[in-house]
Structures are given as C-alpha cells and as structure tokens.
Design brief:
There is one protein chain. The protein has about 240 residues and is an alpha+beta fold. About 35% of the residues lie in helices and about 15% in strands. It has 7 helices and 7 strands, in the order H-E-E-E-H-E-E-H-H-E-E-H-H-H. Strands 1-2-3-5-4 form a 5-stranded antiparallel sheet, sandwiched between helices. Helix 5 packs antiparallel against helix 7.
Length: about 240
C-alpha cells in the first residue's frame, strides 16, 4: 500500500475528466507515475457542496481518514487514498478500482463467500459513523475483493449511521472479527503512526468519538442495530 500511496502522491496528472452524476465535483484522472500510469478518483475541496451537518470543506479529509482507519483496523476495505494538490486545488486522490457496476452490495450479499468482507465493512462503517453507505459504494473487483468508496460523509460527532448493510444486525460478531476489533482498538488508543495519521485528519472530538464507537462495539459484541433516526441512505444503490 505504501508504494501505491507514493505513486498517488507524486504522479503527474495527465488528464482529468468530470464525473457528471456526482453531487460534488468528482474527476476521473490519470497519473503519470514514471514506469506506469494510474487511474484515480480526484475530489477537490473547491468542488464540495456545503452541508448543514458537516463542517464545510472537510469531506476530502474524511475520504483520506476512512482509508487511514481501514489501515489501522488491518482491513483493506478502502482503496489507497492521499491528500494532495490537483488541477482544481487540494483534494483527495484515490486509486480507481475496476469493477462491474452491476455487482453492487445487493448482489454481493447473496454470495456467502463474501460475507466476511461485508461483515468487516459493516463494523467499519459503524466505527466511522458512515452516513451514506449505499449499495453502489461497495465495489467487487475481478479477484473477488470488496472495496468501499465514497466515504466523505464519515466521522461526524453525532450519530449518523445510514447504511444498506443491516443483514447481521444484533447478531454476535464472530470471534475472529471481535479479536481483530479488540487489537485494533489498542492501536487506535495508542501513539502509532497510523493512529497519528488518522488523528491529524479529524478534529479531536471526532477522533475521540471514533474510539468510543469502537469501544461500544467491542463491549456489545454484536453487529450494530439501526438507530432511532433514518438508518437507510437514499437512493439505496
């Protein structure tokens, strides 16, 4: 992952085309990395639409924070993501994942071999407080790996969890996953480089609440249940 991050950070933009169906400015770009080129998704701060419930101009940082949290958890769910300057100014640059758009979450969940990955994603979203986990944000690549994209609406101080992944709500977290959570919680509380990288992208309160949500999952030992407010995003895909 570090090698990919380096390429994302240093590669030169060769082209950058807007993705027109996005609510914020999103570009599909291509980076010249010397010995190869990479397709990337570039989301500049300058193109973010202000939201009433998220601090203005922070969504690109939350994209990068989601990647840092996934690394800290030891769960390679989020494509490598960095913060850097681009054609429209500073923003997040994420490795583009080639995928079949028809194989979204509602198709993936019918395959039991993918459940461990989807269960990890369910727990990840609960810790990150993801307010917008649509089915189309779960990409399945050719190797059978599930990737979670569009993570800008995460890490709010207030409870915001809205997701399509409620299939295991209230069920016990498998022992292996619970052990992984407990180990990652220690890393999250500690002074590791990964913890520092995540802390640097969030407010202190947001970081503290991230730890609290992880602690609650470990104590409860069950997959999250829907909260008292709207718990599905719209549209679902």
């Amino acid at each position: 992952m570090d090698a990919v991050e380096a390429r994302l950070s240093r590669g030169q933009f060769l082209e950058c085309r807007p993705v027109w169906y996005s609510s914020n400015s999103v570009f599909l770009g291509r980076l010249d990395c010397g010995d190869a080129s990479l397709l990337v998704i570039y989301k500049p701060r300058s193109g973010e639409t202000p939201l009433w419930d998220f601090p203005e101009g922070t969504l690109y940082r939350r994209e990068a924070a989601a990647y840092r949290l996934a690394r800290l958890l030891g769960w390679p769910l989020v494509p490598p993501t960095v913060i850097r300057e681009g054609p429209a100014g500073i923003g997040s640059v994420q490795l583009f994942i080639r995928h079949d758009a028809e194989k979204h979450y509602f198709v993936q969940r019918e395959d039991p071999s993918l459940w461990p990955q989807l269960q990890r994603l369910c727990l990840f979203d609960a810790i990150a407080n993801n307010a917008d986990r649509k089915g189309g944000h779960c990409l399945l690549d050719a190797s059978g790996h599930v990737w979670a994209i569009d993570n800008g609406l995460c890490f709010n101080e207030q409870y915001k969890l809205r997701s399509v992944i409620w299939d295991w709500a209230g069920e016990p977290i498998p022992g292996e996953l619970l052990a992984e959570l407990e180990a990652s919680l220690e890393r999250l509380r500690g002074d590791s480089a990964e913890s520092a990288a995540l802390r640097g992208l969030l407010s202190e309160r947001e970081f503290e609440q991230t730890i609290r949500r992880a602690e609650q999952l470990v104590r409860a030992g069950v997959f999250p249940l829907p909260g008292p407010t709207r718990h599905y995003p719209w549209p679902l895909v």
